[in-house]
Design a protein that fits this description.
- By secondary structure, this protein is of the alpha/beta class.
- The protein is 48% helix and 12% strand.
- It contains 15 helices and ten strands.
- Strands 1-8-5-4-2-3 form a six-stranded parallel sheet, sandwiched between helices. It has a two-stranded antiparallel ribbon with strand order 6-7.
- Helix 6 (203-217) packs antiparallel against helix 8 (228-248), helix 9 packs antiparallel against helix 10 and helix 12 (309-317) crosses helix 14 (332-349).
- The protein is globular and about 60 Å long.
C-alpha cells in the first residue's frame, strides 16, 4: 500500500477547541517492567490487576506478577473480565475489590478488561494504570468506558475514567493470533478515520489520526510476519488513534458497529467488518477499501447473526450522537445497503471450520477472548 490517501474534504472546524490528555504515556519494548516503580510513584502498595482468564496463562502476566512481588507490592488478580462487559460485570469486580481493598487498579488486556478496570477504579476513587495487550481499542488513554446496559452498548464518558499512566509495550503483542491482530488493527484504523472526519475535530486531532491510520494500514502485514518494527508501529498507531478519540468521540463507524455488537459479534471485529464500507461512505482512502476488506476476509470470519436489516438500519439512523458528528450525512438507504453487503459477504464466505488461534488462519471472533487474541506460550 502506498503512503498516501485520498480523502473527502472534511470540515476543518477552525476556531476554538480543547485538547486534554491527562494520562502519562510510557511506550516501548520492555516498558511493562516499569510497572512496579510506577505503582510506587502513585503511592500504591496493594494492586488489583483486572484482566481475563485467558491472560493468566500468558508468560507476560507471570513476569509482571513476579516483578511486583520483588518490588514488595501485594497483587490481587481479578480474572473474570469478559468480552463485551456490562455494568453488572463492573459490579462483580467491585465486590471483589472491596474484599481485597486495593489502593491502585491495573487494567491488563484489551479494551474490555481495561474498561472494567477504569470503571472499577473510578468507583473506588483510586489511581489506575492501563496496560494494553492488543493494538486496537486505545482504551489505555481514553476517558470513557464502554459497557452494556440492558444488552445495549453505552459509553460512559468522564475525565476521571482516564488512566494516570498508560503502558504500551509492543512486546505484549507477540502472542497475538493473526485474526486478533487484524481485527484489532482495523479497529484502530476505524478510530483514526472517525476522528479525522469528526465534526468535533481540530488540527491536532487530524494530525494524530492521519499518522495513526497510515502507520496501522501500512504495517499490518509486517506485524503479522513477526517484524519487530511492524509490531511497534501498529502499537503506536492504536495509541495515537486513542489520543485522537479523546477530543472528537466516535462517529458513523461506531453507529454501524453497535448493532453487530448487540447481536453477539465482538466490538473489535464489528469495527473491522464495517471499516471498508465506512471508508467508501465517508470517501476516506476509498481506493484501499476493497484491499482492506480482502485482507480482513483472509483472517476473520463474519459470524452468522439475525440479519434483520430494517431493524439494524433503523437503530443506526436513530443514533443522533454518532451521526451528527460524522463528516457527511448518510441516508437510511445507505445504511441498509451496508448491512446487505455485509450479510452477503458472510453468506458467500461460508462457515469455515474454527481452527483455534493459530496464526494465518481464519477464526470465528463472535465472542472475542484472550484465548483467541493470543497464542498460548509455555
Amino acid at each position: 500500500m502506498k503512503n498516501e490517501i485520498s480523502a473527502y474534504f472534511y470540515p476543518r472546524g477552525a476556531g476554538s477547541f480543547e485538547f486534554q490528555l491527562p494520562t502519562r504515556i510510557i511506550f516501548g519494548e520492555g516498558m511493562v517492567r516499569r510497572l512496579g516503580g510506577e505503582i510506587k510513584q502513585l503511592g500504591g502498595i496493594r494492586a488489583l490487576i483486572v484482566t481475563s482468564r485467558g491472560m493468566l496463562e500468558r508468560q507476560a502476566v507471570k513476569y509482571i506478577l513476579a516483578d511486583l512481588d520483588r518490588a514488595g507490592i501485594t497483587a490481587s488478580t481479578y480474572s473474570a473480565a469478559p468480552p463485551e462487559p456490562s455494568v453488572d460485570d463492573v459490579d462483580t469486580c467491585l465486590k471483589f475489590a472491596n474484599k481485597v481493598k486495593p489502593d491502585i487498579v491495573i487494567g491488563l488486556g484489551g479494551g474490555s478488561a481495561m474498561d472494567v478496570a477504569k470503571k472499577t477504579a473510578r468507583e473506588m476513587a483510586v489511581p489506575k494504570i492501563m496496560i494494553a495487550t492488543t493494538a486496537g481499542s486505545g482504551s489505555e488513554v481514553t476517558h470513557n468506558s464502554v459497557l452494556k446496559v440492558d444488552g445495549r452498548k453505552k459509553s460512559f464518558n468522564d475525565i476521571k475514567l482516564a488512566a494516570d499512566v498508560a503502558i504500551v509495550d509492543p512486546d505484549l503483542l507477540m502472542t497475538m493470533s493473526a485474526a486478533g491482530m487484524v481485527s484489532s488493527a482495523m479497529d484502530a484504523m476505524a478510530h483514526a478515520m472517525e476522528s479525522y472526519g469528526a465534526r468535533k475535530g481540530n488540527s491536532i486531532v487530524r494530525a494524530l489520526a492521519l499518522e495513526s491510520y497510515l502507520l496501522t494500514r501500512d504495517n499490518i502485514g509486517l506485524a503479522l510476519s513477526g517484524d519487530v518494527e511492524g509490531r511497534r508501529n501498529i502499537a503506536m498507531g492504536s495509541l495515537m488513534a486513542g489520543m485522537a478519540l479523546i477530543s472528537t468521540g466516535t462517529t458513523l463507524g461506531h453507529a454501524l458497529a453497535y448493532p453487530l455488537s448487540d447481536r453477539g459479534i465482538s466490538h473489535g471485529l464489528s469495527l473491522a467488518i464495517v471499516l471498508p464500507y465506512l471508508m467508501k461512505i465517508n470517501r476516506f482512502d476509498a481506493g484501499h477499501a476493497d484491499e482492506l476488506k480482502s485482507f480482513r476476509q483472509k483472517y476473520c470470519v463474519i459470524p452468522e447473526i439475525d440479519w434483520n436489516i430494517k431493524e439494524m438500519a433503523s437503530e443506526v439512523a436513530a443514533d443522533e450522537r454518532h451521526l451528527s458528528n460524522n463528516a457527511r450525512e448518510v441516508t437510511l438507504q445507505e445504511i441498509a445497503a451496508v448491512y446487505e453487503a455485509i450479510k452477503d459477504e458472510s453468506r458467500n464466505a461460508g462457515r469455515l471450520p474454527r481452527p483455534g488461534s493459530a496464526p494465518n488462519k481464519n477464526i470465528d471472533l463472535r465472542r472475542e477472548t484472550d484465548e483467541q487474541h493470543h497464542e498460548k506460550v509455555p
